[in-house]
Amino acid sequence: MPLLQQAATPTENDGPAPIILRIRVTGMTCAGCAASIQRALEARSDVVSASVSFLSGTAEIHGAQLDTASVLETIRDRGFGADLVDDAASGPDRSAVETQQQAAERTWRQRAIVGMGLWVPLELLHWTVSAMHWHGPWMPWVMFCGALIIIVFAGSEFYRSAWAAATRGTTNMDTLISLGATTAFVYSSVAFLLQLDVATYFSEAAGLLGIVSLGHWFEARASSRAGSAVRELLRLQPETAEILHDDGSSSVIAAGTVERGCRIAIRPGARIPVDGVVLDGRSAVDESIVTGESIPVDKGPGDTVAAGSMNSTGRLILRTTVDGRHTTVTRIAELVEKAQTSRAPIQRLADRISSVFVPAVLIIAAGTLTFWWLAGDRATAITAAVTVLIISCPCALGLATPMAVMVGAGAASQRGILIRSAETLERIGRSQQVVFDKTGTLTSGRPELTNVSPSAGYSEDRLLQLAASVEAPAEHPLARAIVRAAETRGLKLLPVSNFESVPGRGVRGQVEGQWIVVDRDPQATSRVSVDGTWIGTLALTDQLRPDAIAAVAQLQQMGIAVALLTGDRRDTAFRIGQSLGLRPDDVFAEATPESKVATVRAFRGDVVMVGDGLNDAAALAASGLGVALASGTDVAIEAAAVVIPGDRVSAVPELFGLARATLQTIRQNLFFAFLYNTLAIPLAALGLLGTSGPLWAALAMGISDFTVVGNAVRLKRRLDRARRQQPS
């Protein structure tokens, strides 16, 4: 049963199966482009939901009976390139991801070099000749030609985007930049060519495009680095694999073409290209890609290994369990990429504001122009209107959330924590309470015999031998623990007949002609009787995981309320809870699957439910924030809201820590973006920035973008530093 069932399997009565399209979008220059595409897609009647990411250049569309060609045309009609990505077949395309990000960075670098490379000398020359009174008739021509070159080259992308939006009857952030630069340049050109005795703004028009291009270059570099987690994951999967043939020969083929069931050889020091099970050989394997732990694990025949793991000491022969296109690496990378490109609920506020922001700014700019023009101050009318257009560009608003989400989701994956969506990350960042399942989550799920108490006339070994003999056919974890203890002592198990198992009570059967009953009671784990006479008790305890106590303490220090939810008896549950530092009120014992669901739903607000993913499916789903302790190779990847390494409870406080840090960064970014526009627009409209207002506006807009991007980069460095400081 999946850990979190996202949707029921379609049946004849369920209607058509949902369709998910992933599309690579080219030509986006800012977050506003992504928002406009998303609005156009969501306006379609066949689209249930859509998410478009400017940072990764992808769109994901969910709907029923989607017409792929029509969806692609919707994007192309808005002036952008669109091509279908077959993620289901091949996972994230390493070359496509890198190529698009590198192309964006290269394009904006070239425009920034041209824009800043011409504008800075022109500005210095202008200041110099003015100070030295060398200002002759040649100077306006130099400024005119320099500004024209910058507008043609550095401004071409802004004009293309703005024109595409205009032809569709819409506006975007590039509309403001294009109008601002064009207004300043055209006004100055008219004044210069007609030799009017008014100030010109060639320098401001050129500086605007140069500075904004520089800002976009830094954004492209930062987004590429923020999204490096996916590329780093993909690089962990080798591009080739050594296939072993039946005749004893071998050949090297592309890892993506490896079929399921092939035999492959893994040499010492090489990474494993495809998931598989060891057929021959022994070696220590670094599985940090799955577990987040770099300590190698010994592997031998029968053990499973995941693609991307590093083979360290010996040669291994594997039988592949998946094909080369559906490995652990590609599945994890796909999940991380989807999380990075999804939209957090807090982003909706920014989206709503951005959707009306540009038209509102155009109205304010027109009003500013009209007011100052009618007041008789035409120079201020032009500069103030242009300044409003430039300084109001909400680029920082569009970057505030996706930059932080990309960093947070990537940092989680580097810890072995897989988060399904930005919404999950945000909700966990807000959550103040976590509920743990006990068995297999806080405890190892492997009970151990801790005490043997025989009655008079019986020895410990005889008591254990009889109990283990009748428990041998059972599959209950307690039965397995009793049998293991007997085998450890070297005791011979006796044949059992007429075996019966009573769920929740124990087992019974005949051994050497006597009826042996192993029964559970509240005072002892198991009581053993022979023909109705009790002969002793066996105490078994499921040991806490080594890091469980520290993990719970760390969560409590973070102000998070911790509760324990288990089907165990009250005395056992309260004893475990006391060991963890929990109050009796925080322990919910003797819970059935149904009562677990009711308990989780009784909590107010977002509650995180942590379980091992086997017996807690309903409770995990009920919380909406189910966190499963499981291997990254498990089916949990497709089902859970969050998957953390199965042997590290300490990953739970790590998850809360990075979720809170990400949410805090988002809030800071949105605050900076809102504060910037709130303060800047009145200053620009009132003409308080002076004749160089457009230039100051360009600098201020660049600073706001740098603030948001820099804050996300700071988050990445902070999370990276915290990961390096963790004890190995």
Instruction: Give the assembly state of these chains.
Output: single chain
Identify the strand order in the major beta sheet: 14-26-25-24-15-22-23
Number of domains: 5
Shape: elongated
Percentage of residues in DSSP E strands: 15-25%
Q: Report the mean per-residue pLDDT as an integer.
A: 80
The total beta strand count reads 26
Would you tell me the structural class of the helices and strands? alpha+beta
Question: Largest sheet, described in full?
Answer: 7 strands, mixed
Number of helices: 25
Radius of gyration: 33 Å
How far is the first residue's CA from the last residue's CA?
A: 34 Å
The poorly predicted ranges are: 1-14, 87-91
Q: Tell me the helix content.
A: 40-55%
Brief sketch in words of this structure:
The chain is an alpha+beta fold.
Question: How would you describe this protein?
Answer:
By secondary structure, this protein is an alpha+beta fold. It folds into five domains: 76 residues, Alpha-Beta Plaits (2-Layer Sandwich), CATH 3.30.70; 261 residues, no CATH class; 89 residues, Calcium-transporting ATPase, cytoplasmic transduction domain A, CATH 2.70.150.10; 154 residues, HAD superfamily/HAD-like (Rossmann fold, 3-Layer(aba) Sandwich), CATH 3.40.50.1000; 94 residues, Calcium-transporting ATPase, cytoplasmic domain N, CATH 3.40.1110.10. 51% of the residues lie in helices and 18% in strands. The chain has 25 helices and 26 strands. The strands form five sheets. It has a seven-stranded mixed β-sheet with strand order 14-26-25-24-15-22-23.
